[in-house]
Amino acid sequence: MATFDVTDADFGEKVLKSEKPILVDFWAAWCGPCKMAEPVLEELSEEYKDKVLIAKLDVDANQKSAQDYDVMSIPTTILYKGGKEIGRQIGFAGKKAFEDIIKKGIEEGGD
Amino acid sequence: MDEEVFAPKPKEGEPWDVAIIGSGPASLTAAIYTTRGAVSTLILGGEKWGGQLMLTTEVDNYPAMPGIQGPELMQKMREHATRFGGEFVEKSVEHVDFNKKPFELSAGGQKYFARTVIIATGALTRWLGVPGEKELIGRGVSSCAPCDAPFYKGKQVLVIGGGDSAMEEALVLTKYATSVTIVHRKGEFRASAAMQKKIFDAKVDVIWETEVTKVLGQEKLSAISLKTKLDSRRAQELKDGKINNYKGKIIEEKEGFLFWEMPIEGVFVAIGHKPDTDVFKGPIELDQKGYVVVHDHTRTNLPGVYVAGDVHDYHYKQAVTAAGFGCMAAMDVLKYLDGLREKETQGKQSAGA
């Protein structure tokens, strides 16, 4: 499935209570590297569609979530599982870097 | 538009006429020239494409484009580079084999073949290389103010460096941070007069003749260690009380330096760039700092392999000079390919006779 947007308001519902592991991309419209990451995350959301959800959070409109998770650089991409952070990628470092944390999320716990 | 494509893509099993490695202004300008020169052109642009301008905001020194955003300029260049048939691949080159003919390039696990190559990989952020820095990148340490400045709203930040990019980082930060201080190891900036004026107009404070020795913090940046030459005016000023302006404290006087510390919430590193040439080590002649050594304007030590932009130019380092170098390399490639074709036709003729 495609990526979808999350906000401060539905972060708890959509991210923390998500049944599947969920990768959240903290991004903003003015950030060059975020633009590079965008199509890659879109691709990954198709390739891993049964295993991992991929969401996007606009940090300009949703400062609270960014602060709650100490996001101080974008893009920052955090993998949550069972309401907890289990992996973090700071900056855009190519597709493989994202895949590495996704795989970690799939393997860990296995539930 | 098809009618604007002057060279078709190579058939299965045939090499590209030219493969351009990189995707900054040098690479994309080269591609504009090679495609319009009717040679098939592959751009191995990397996953992180667009180069240094993707990490900037306003670009005020690119002709006819005052005020354009760096990422937007690169998007436009990319469209221009593919408009006449250039193939852009968002994969990073992992290995090159210049002994083979055609040259063999591996990117994203796939092999590509090309009769000529233009190396235009540019340069990457140079970090300080001090203890604590690596662990705190993205946790208070950054090299991209345009990306990260909004997270420093109401905070106190330092910018390290003395060139144009340090000035730009500082200016971007003044819009968000409560205080912006530049730390520079020399007593004067090498930045352009225009950028320096903006900095001094913005009342940005400068700690001169001072170097960073350590970055401190657990999970999150909390302080920075600095050293200032003991016999300098700055060290005296610090000792006379200026250090209190920074809520700093003196640690020790040792080996001719005043070692001191100050609490800080953000550190932006802008001390320059290093050429992105690791993948070419060995076959391509590099200088001590890793820049590609240029012969005769755009040639490397290997026939058929050319170079353009910040990957060899340690002097000018501008978007527009990189673009110019890209044009030069493309023109030399076109000429070289003409020579190859002539030889091939002669070869065929004599073989047929």
Average pLDDT across residues of chain A? 91
Helix content of chain A: 25-40%
For the record, the CATH class of chain A is Alpha Beta
Extended strand count of chain B: 20
% residues in beta strands of chain A: 15-25%
Beta strands of chain A, count: 5
**Biggest interface: chains and residue counts?**
A-B, 24 and 29 residues
The CATH superfamily of the largest domain in chain B is known as FAD/NAD(P)-binding domain
| CA-CA gap between termini of chain B | 42 Å
Q: What is the molecular shape of chain A? A: globular
The tally of structural domains of chain A comes to 1
Distance between the termini of chain A: 21 Å
Oligomer: heterodimer
CATH topology of chain A: Glutaredoxin
Q: Which architecture of the largest domain in chain B per CATH?
A: 3-Layer(bba) Sandwich
Order of helices and strands of chain B: EHEEEHEEEEEEHEHEHEEEHEEEEEH
Helices of chain B, by number, come to: 7
**What radius of gyration of chain B results from the CA coordinates?**
24 Å
Description of the structure:
- The complex is a heterodimer of chains A (111) and B (353).
- Chain A has 111 residues and is an alpha/beta fold.
- Chain A is globular, with a radius of gyration of 13 Å.
- Chain A has helices at residues 11-16, 32-47, 63-68, 95-107; strands spanning 4-5, 22-27, 53-58, 76-81, 84-90.
- Chain B is 26% helix and 26% strand.
- Chain B has helices spanning 25-36, 70-83, 145-148, 164-174, 193-201, 233-239, 319-352, and strands at 16-21, 41-44, 58-59, 68-69, 87-89, 93-97, 103-107, 110-119, 123-125, 141-142, 156-160, 179-183, 205-207, 210-216, 223-229, 249-254, 257-263, 266-269, 273-275, 305-307.
- In chain B, the strands form 5 sheets. In chain B, strands 1, 2, 5, 6, 7, 8 and 20 form a 7-stranded mixed sheet that branches. A 5-stranded parallel sheet of chain B has the order 10-18-11-12-13, covered by helices on one side. In chain B, strands 14-15-17-16 form a 4-stranded antiparallel sheet.
- In chain B, a hairpin with an 8-residue loop joins strand 3 and strand 4.
- The longest helix of chain B is centred in the last third of the chain and has 34 residues, at 319-352.
- Chain B is elongated, with a radius of gyration of 24 Å.
- Classes of the chains: A alpha/beta (111), B alpha/beta (353).
